[in-house]
Amino acid sequence: MSAVLFVLLLSWLSLTAYALLAGADFGAGTWDLLAGSARGGRARRGLIEHVIGPVWEANHVWLIFVLVLLWTSFPPAFSAIASTLWVPLTLAALGIIGRGSAFAFRKTVTATWQQAAFGATFALSSVATPFFLGTAAGAIGAGRVPPGLAAGDTLRSWTSPVALLTGALAVAACSFLAATYLCGDAERAGSPAEVGWFRLRALASGAVAGALAIAGLFVTHADARALFDGLAGRGLPLIAVSASAGVGALALVALRRYLLARVAAGLAVGAVVWGWGVAQYPHLLPGLDARQAAAVPTTLHAVVITSIIGVAVLVPSLVALLRLFQRPERPTA
Amino acid sequence: MLLAAADVAPRSQMGLSLGWHIVLACLGVGLPALVLFAEWRGLRTGDPVYRLLARRWARALGVLFAVGAVSGTILSFEMGVLWSGLMQRYGSVIGLPFTIEGFAFFIEAIFLGIYLYGWDRLAPRVHLLSGVPILVAGVLSAFFVVTANAWMNSPQGFVLRHGKVLSTDPWRAIFNKATWPETTHMILSAFMVTGFLVASVYGVAMLRGREDDYHRRGLRIALALGAICAPLQVVVGDWAARYVAADQPAKLAAMEGLYDSGTHQPLAIGGVYIGHHLVGALHVPDGLSLLLRLKPDGYVQGLSAVPANDRPPVAIVHFSFDTMVGIGFGLLALAAWFGWAHWRHGDLPRTRWFLRAVAISGAAATVAMEAGWMVTEVGRQPWVVWHLLRTSTAVNPAQHLSDGLPVLVVVYVLLTILLIAVLRRMTRSTPVPAAPQEADADEYAVV
Known about the structure:
By secondary structure, chain A is mostly helical. Chain A is built from 13 helices and two strands, in the order αααααααααααββαα.
C-alpha cells in the first residue's frame, strides 16, 4: 500500500472514531438538553455524566488527529478547507470549548441554578459543535471548497442545502448513537425507567436520522451532482450497509437487544462516513486529488512510522481505560 | 504599515488563545508532579494531610485539564483558520511534532481518566503508578509542541524550490538549533508557574489565618518545586539568550533595545525605546558584551544592521524582556529566602512579608512566562518563519476574518471569570478541616 493511501486511511479511521465516540458524547449532550426539568431529569443527567465523564477527553483527541494528519500529510487541502470554512470551524471550536468547560464546571457546583446554567451551556454546545462540523463536511463533500487560500465563498460554501442538511444529519446521528449506547448503560446501571426513556429516544432519533439521510440523497442529487454520482456509484454498497444497519439497529432497540444495537448503530453511522470518503476518492477537493495534495514521501513515511509506534502504545492504554469503566459493578447513577 | 495592520487581528487572536491556553498547559505539565509527590508521601507515611492534599489537587487537576484540553483544540483549528498560508507552505515540515504531540496528549488523557476515576477502584500502588504516564506524556507534549515553535525561529530540515517544499527531513526539523534551549526554558517555566501558583493559594490562606499543618505543607511542597526550578531557569535563560544572539540577532537587539552595532555594548535595564534610543534606562558598561561574548569588547549587532521593514516592534519586546528577567530574579530571591530559612531552622520564614511575597509569586511567575512568549513571538516579527515567510503573507486572506477576535475576547473573559469562580467554589464548598483525619481524605471525592 502506498504511503498516501495509508495516511488517508488513517485520517479516515480517526474521523470514524471521532464520529462514533465523540459523536456519542455530543449526542449525550443533546439528550441532557432534552432530559426534562432540573428535578425530573436529575437521574438521567447523572447517568449521562457518569458515562461520558471518564472518556470524553480521550474521545475528543481523535479530532486533533484528523486535523494534524490532514495538515501534515495534505497541506494544500487543509489550508484550503480551513481558510474557506473559517466561520463554521471557529464556531465548532468555540462549541468544543463551551461543551468541555461547562461539563467540567457543572460537576463542581451544587446549587441548582448553577448546575442548570452550566448544563444548558454544555447541552447547547453539544448540539452546535456537530452541526457546524457537519456543515463543514457537507461543504467539502458538495465540492464548495476549491483549492487555494480562501478561494471558496466563506458564507455560501457551508450554508448550501447539502451542507445544512449534513449539519442536521450529524446532530441526529450523534443523538441516535448516544441514545442507543445509553440504553445499554442504563440497563447495566439497573434503572429500567431510564432504559425506557432512552429507548424511545433512540427509536425517534434513529427515524429522524434515517429520514434526513433519505432527504439528503434527494438534496445531494439536486445540489451536488458529483457527490451524488459517487454515492450512487462506488459508494452504493456502503450506503446500502448503512441503510440496512440503521434499520437493523432500530429493530434491535425495539427488541431490547441493546448490545447488538450498539454495533449496528455504529455500523450505520460509520458506513456513511466511509461512503462519503469512497464517493469522492481520490479527490479531496475539486481538482485536487490525494496524490497531488500529498506531502513529500519523507514526511509521509515519518507520519506512518510515528503512527504505528503511537498506536502500539495507545491501544493497550485505551483498553485499560475502557475495561476499568465497563465493569458491571459500577454504582448506579 | 497597511500590511502590518492586516495581520494585527489574527495575531491578537492567536496571542489571546495561546496566551490563555498556555497557563492551563503549564498546570497540566506541572500539577501532576505535585499530585504524584503528595500521593507518594501519603502512601509512604500514611499521613492524612498528604493524602488529602493529593486528592484536592487531583480534583483541581481534573477541571484544569478538561479546560486545557478544549482551549488547546482551538489552536489546532486556528493554525489553519488564521495561518493557512503558513500551513499551506510548511504544514508538511512542522506537522510531525504535532502528530507526536497528539499521541502524547492522547496517552495523557487516557491515563488521567484512569487516575482520576480509578482512585478508589485500583490498589494504592497501582494507582500511583497509573499517574506516572500523565507526567511523562505531559512533559513530552510540551516538548514536541515547543519544537514546532522553535522551528519557526530556526527553520531547517527541508529544501525549497520556487517557494515550494521539494523535500523534507522532519526529524531534523524537530531537532533544530532553537529546540533544546527553547523547550528546556518552557518546561522549566511550566514547573515554575505551577509551583508558584499553587504556593500562592496557600500563601493567601495563611495570610488569612489558616496556618495549620495542611496549608503549611501545601505551601512548602509547591514552593519547593518553584524554588528548585528558579536558579536552573537563570542558567537556561542565559543559554536561550545566547542562542537568540547567535541565530536571531535582530530579536536580541530588540530585547536589549540596542540600535547601533559595535563593541563594548552596555547592558540596558529598564527604559522606554523611543526613536532608536532607550530613554531612562540604567546602563551597565560593557555588560551585554560581557554576558554574550564573555569579554568587555565583544561585538553585538544592533537593529541598524537590519532593514527597517525587517525589524520587530522594539519597545514591547524590550519591555517584555525586562519584565520576564526582573520577575525571574525576584522569584530567585524568594527561592533563596525560602531555602535559607529551611536550612537555618527547618521552617518557613516567620515574617508576614514572606507570605505576601509567596501570595504574589504565582501571578508574577505567570506574567513572566507570558512576557517570555511576547519576547519570542513579537521579537520574531515581521517573520512567522524566520527570514522565510512573513506573517502578513501567512495570514488567511478571507474577508471579515478579524471579526473572530471580538467574539473570542468575550468567550475568554467569560471563561476566565467562570474558571476562577469554579476553583474558588471547589475550595469553599468542602473546606479543609483544621486537623485532617483519615476519613477526611477517604471521603473527599476526586471526581
